[in-house]
Amino acid sequence: MSEHIVWRVPLLFALPSWGTVGTVGHIDVDVQTGELTITPELIQKIQANATEKATYYSTLARPAV
């Protein structure tokens, strides 16, 4: 039986005034081939998560420097 091993790479969302504010998804990378496991649905989910975080943080007062 062959194992399918991947690296799971988190996608962090960062804003200039806030720094990293959270994870918006992940991409799996095949260890042997380097192929990315990414689908149109995954891209849409990542974009939606990033938009949600951007919208939320745009309503807050900026942190003091």
Question: Can you tell me about this structure?
Answer:
This protein is α+β, with helices and mostly antiparallel strands and 65 residues long. The chain has one domain. Helices cover 29% and strands 37% of the residues. It has a three-stranded antiparallel beta sheet. The longest helix is centred in the last third of the chain and has 19 residues, at 40-58. The radius of gyration is 16 Å and the shape is elongated. The model has no long low-confidence stretch (mean pLDDT 92).
| Helix/sheet category | alpha+beta
- Reading the helices and strands in chain order gives EEEH
Q: What is the terminal separation in angstroms?
A: 55 Å
Average pLDDT number: 92
Number of strands: 3
Shape: elongated
Helix % is 25-40%
Beta percentage is 35-45%
Largest sheet: 3 strands, antiparallel
**Neighbour order of strands in the largest sheet:** 1-2-3
Write down the Rg. Answer: 16 Å
Query: Please, how many domains?
Result: 1
Low-confidence stretches: none
The oligomeric state is: single chain
Number of helices: 1
